[in-house]
């Protein structure tokens, strides 16, 4: 039997510290990838006991403080620490700009191939300047250097590959490989129980629309809240939305939620991170899952909803049309940006009303919503298996190493 390739997986997020789609991706990829390679995780944060975690790293204490620019510098300090411990692997695979420089440094230091998965692109998220200040310039620099110098770039959708080549014109198209995000339908599946709904304050007897995502410009939560003004009466809106990117963003969302509660009621805001079991149950009983993102290279949360048998209404942006099939697993709502740094719709009220119209159709036609949901789960099983995705990733490693 051939010895397994040793791979260092570098990531900011890893359980139990997972807050976004990239963290979900890495968690599942590593789980299935270990059948093919010797994958050891190097992640940010506190110590983990998981056997696959080689080490975890916290930022340099000298960079403690609240100044806006320090966040990016703390990230770089972790990258430097990680790169010092990648000298015993044959290949390094990094995820997101937060971890890419560790992979790049390891490539330079030890002459090993660097694979990077691009989950999003900094040039297409200009609103991050609101969050990071000058740190956004630094994050953009880290991404550019890494993506241009990597031996292989994994794009999580065809749309993402097109965005990479458009944003970074010097990148060789032949080194950009499309390998989709995935999901484990055995772990994320419909749950008929309702105990978690009651614990979260959701009334299982009233149809509800659910949103799952960060409170950030990218996820379009403000546009959903504007659309909710036009929902049919007696509809619950469930927001699984945690910490905002900025205090101003948090205040804006809080104001819109309070307005809805005063005029329509039935708004449930779950600010804490739900467990996988809790989230599956909340998704299962929703009439509609909505993804109003203004930018979404893939949108793994749409797969989670589909795996739970829920109809999806989503913005027609990025990689979402590669997941959601119109009139089969859900509805795609056209989105046109006004070109501003905040990704605002060109016709904001129209976008809100179009979202509401697509959602109301499924609220009023439960049989149609169920058909979309059933077909969505079947599509997940057939197209987006983590086992197949891990195998393709391992094949890419072998190709780079000449195995």
Could you characterize what this model shows?
The strands form two sheets. The chain has a seven-stranded parallel sheet, with helices on both faces. It has a six-stranded parallel sheet with strand order 10-9-8-11-12-13, with helices on both faces. Helix 8 runs parallel beside helix 9. It has helices at 21-33, 70-83, 97-110, 128-132, 135-149, 158-167, 195-200, 221-227, 247-263, 276-284, 300-307, 348-364, 366-383, 386-401; strands at 6-11, 38-44, 53-57, 91-95, 114-118, 152-155, 176-178, 208-212, 236-240, 267-270, 288-291, 311-315, 330-333. The protein is globular. It has 403 residues and is α/β, with parallel strands linked by helices.
Superfamily (CATH H level) name of the largest domain: Glycogen Phosphorylase B
What percent of residues adopt helix (DSSP H or I)?
40-55%
- Could you tell me the mean pLDDT? 94
* Low-confidence runs: none
The outline comes out as: globular
Query: Which fold does the CATH topology of the largest domain refer to?
Result: Rossmann fold
What count of helical segments does DSSP give?
14
Largest sheet: 7 strands, parallel
The structural domain count equals 2
Q: Would you count the extended β strands for me?
A: 13
